[in-house]
Amino acid sequence: MFDYKLLSALAAVIEQAGFERAAQLLGLSQSAISQRIKLLEARVGQPVLVRANPPTPTEIGKRLLNHVQQVRLLERDLQSQVPALDEEGLPERLRVALNADSLATWWGAAVGDFCAQQQVLLDLVVEDQEVGLKRMRAGEVAACVCASERPVAGARSELLGAMRYRALASPAFMARHFPDGFDAERLARTPALVFGPDDFLQHRYLASLGITGGFLHHLCPSSEGFMRLTEASIGWGLVPELQVREQLASGRLVEILADKPIDVPLYWHHWRNGGQLLVHLTDHLRQHAGNWLVPWTGMAASAASGKNL
């Protein structure tokens, strides 16, 4: 039989990125958390953590985290049927990995009513697409939004729609770098904005114009900062259309190449055995995400993955 106090200690260490914060969360001493982890390792006969900064789960640790994450959600279903089992009466916390651009645009509006109706607290982890799926595989999150269609083992994925990006710059930037009009070859020699090392959306956009190889770019790991740097004429960038409608209408930002957007599909990944809370959230997203996302056509010119997705 599992000792869920030990599993809770493991989950807290991973979710809180360290022993000290895990101890604060569970109301224990750091020494007590360490002892619980050691006892868990003694019972399974191998390490469950790589003691790095932050700690990461071993392969057996990932399996245990997967288990405890799903048990928490299933316990919520049981507590709703037998209220006496819910001793604390606290809202459920749902841990979800999410790309930064979704968080900056449509996510809040899409799930606001759901959180109020279901009395759920969100614990959002902002990650790019690969790390988001790794977080699921490690059992750190119950669900994620990303651009990859293929789910991890034990999970399902379904298409929510696509986020439309437009290649934008300020009028001053365009006047400085393209005084005689747009030139695709010159674009690779003008500073771009890239979210981070895993951001390949600009590469795909340039490839769609027949441009391959490296290009000049700034790194800006902030969705809001990305837009502000574009407005400040520091570089050109691919920005979610949802985020810049006002700037486009006012002329503060303009399209580098008229009417050539690039779409990125967004998939919702969730555990198969995640309980009714995940079922309800999945239904809710299925019904409402299309209010903000565009239909995914799968066209070759569109991106299979992109900025922090």
Automatic annotation (TrEMBL):
<keyword id="KW-0804">Transcription</keyword>
<dbReference type="InterPro" id="IPR036388">
    <property type="entry name" value="WH-like_DNA-bd_sf"/>
</dbReference>
<dbReference type="InterPro" id="IPR023490">
    <property type="entry name" value="ArgP_gammaproteobact"/>
</dbReference>
<feature type="domain" description="HTH lysR-type">
    <location>
        <begin position="2"/>
        <end position="58"/>
    </location>
</feature>
<comment type="subunit">
    <text>Homodimer.</text>
</comment>
<dbReference type="Pfam" id="PF00126">
    <property type="entry name" value="HTH_1"/>
</dbReference>
<dbReference type="InterPro" id="IPR000847">
    <property type="entry name" value="LysR_HTH_N"/>
</dbReference>
<protein>
    <recommendedName>
        <fullName>HTH-type transcriptional regulator ArgP</fullName>
    </recommendedName>
</protein>
<dbReference type="InterPro" id="IPR005119">
    <property type="entry name" value="LysR_subst-bd"/>
</dbReference>
<dbReference type="Pfam" id="PF03466">
    <property type="entry name" value="LysR_substrate"/>
</dbReference>
<comment type="function">
    <text>Controls the transcription of genes involved in arginine and lysine metabolism.</text>
</comment>
<dbReference type="InterPro" id="IPR036390">
    <property type="entry name" value="WH_DNA-bd_sf"/>
</dbReference>
<keyword id="KW-0238">DNA-binding</keyword>
<dbReference type="InterPro" id="IPR017685">
    <property type="entry name" value="ArgP"/>
</dbReference>
<dbReference type="InterPro" id="IPR050176">
    <property type="entry name" value="LTTR"/>
</dbReference>
<comment type="similarity">
    <text>Belongs to the LysR transcriptional regulatory family.</text>
</comment>
<keyword id="KW-0805">Transcription regulation</keyword>
